[in-house]
Amino acid sequence: MRLFETRPGDDGLPGPERALAVLALVTGTLMAVVDTTMINLALPIIAADLGASASRSVWITNIFQVVCAAFLLVFAGLSELITRRRLYLLGLSTFVVASLGAALSRNLEMLLVFRAFQGLGAAATLSIGPSLYRLIFPSRLLGSALGLSALVVAGGYAAGPTLSGVILSFADWPWLFALNVPLGLCSLYFAAKALPRDPARQGSFDVAGALYSMAMLASFFLAMDGVGHAAYLEAGAWSALCVVAAFAFVRRQRRAAYPLLPLSVFSEMRFTLAVSASGLAFIGQGLTFVALSFFYQDQMGLSPLETAWLFTPWPLAIMVVGPLAGRLADKVNPSVLSSVGLAFLIVGLVALALVDESTSAAGSLWRTALCGIGFGLFQPPNNREMMASLPVARSANVSGVMSTMRTVGQSFGVAVVGAALALGLAVQATLWFGAFTTLLALVASLSRVSLAGRALVERRASSRRD
What we know:
Layout: H1 15-50, H2 54-57, H3 59-82, H4 84-104, H5 108-136, H6 142-170, H7 174-178, H8 180-194, H9 207-228, H10 232-255, H11 269-299, H12 304-311, H13 313-329, H14 334-353, H15 361-388, H16 395-422, H17 429-447, H18 449-465
Helix pairs in contact: 1-5, 1-6, 1-8, 3-4, 3-5, 3-9, 3-16, 4-5, 4-8, 5-16, 6-13, 6-15, 9-10, 9-16, 11-12, 11-15, 11-16, 11-17, 13-15, 14-15, 14-17
InterPro entries: MFS, MFS_dom, MFS_trans_sf
Keywords: Membrane, Transmembrane, Transmembrane helix
Membrane topology: Multi-pass membrane protein
């Protein structure tokens, strides 16, 4: 297989070790992604079994997301000090133990504690996952590797609801968490055996920056959750805390001897524009899934299973197109590929915004598939630009920013839908907003085409010299 071929002069791991390391990353990522989508479907069943109200049971999902979001930048920075290998093993171990604890929980409070620890473990693995791909694979295959990463994440989102339905059809909800234990132990074995040993950075850890980062990201997520539930006073308070924490975080990063996130990385325009495009595109993706869920079920009267089926083309298209886009990004200008993908995504979102009660299932399916094709063309090349635009030494920071922008964008998109519903606006109107933010992402992507083109020419010249 091309991804595991070794050529003279390759950096990264040799082919056999590369395969084992990828297996560890794939299983670890799948657990974190599938876990979120599985639990969402099971919330009513868990709430009934534990005697919890619907409003309290929502925190089974929320606490995982808040903790995970709060620690993404922290763990990316910490990985430089303790190495990515150790952080990944620690995070994976935490996730597995917390999954066992969640499976054994017999009241809501106990379950919430273990869900928080699951979020902690997931943050450790997801924050550095993309940077580990850069250590594992040779530079010539970086786009292909990130295409594989996109395939795994999309596959997890697609499989989660189905897997949850299958398990709940013959077993109780604790098995949703227990499933992570054998998978996690296998992943731990492969990770300990094959993940590369990267050198630790000397120096101190930016504790103040970490605290500001946690406050900033956690309050942002809680503010977006408040907007989504029309709790505007609460959302305003969390937003104020987010702004204050963000100001303090930026000020600290300018003064710290070893900043958690060196702000100098944003002086590289290829990186900054790729980050901007990513965040704006994820707003469109995040709001689309929530908006269409309400539209299909509340206005078209479809069941949750029928709604999930109408969403399936999106992740399936990413699974097919993403790896191909990643391979192409190693050979052609990745910014051009990303821009073409965003154009497809805009057309798909506009087409979905025009859906009404008379639209057939086939009419919805092709629109959703078009969005998936666009996102699959966009994400791996864009991630390659983020990762390749900075030195290898900054890979952990890039990985943390990449994961954070995905979380922030999706959370903001969900909040937009919640605000529209609270104001009595048509949920379809939010899709026009998603198309608009994706258009802004396209502008950012097109702005770096020439920069990425020059980098591609330099990479080819360097390859010929080697």
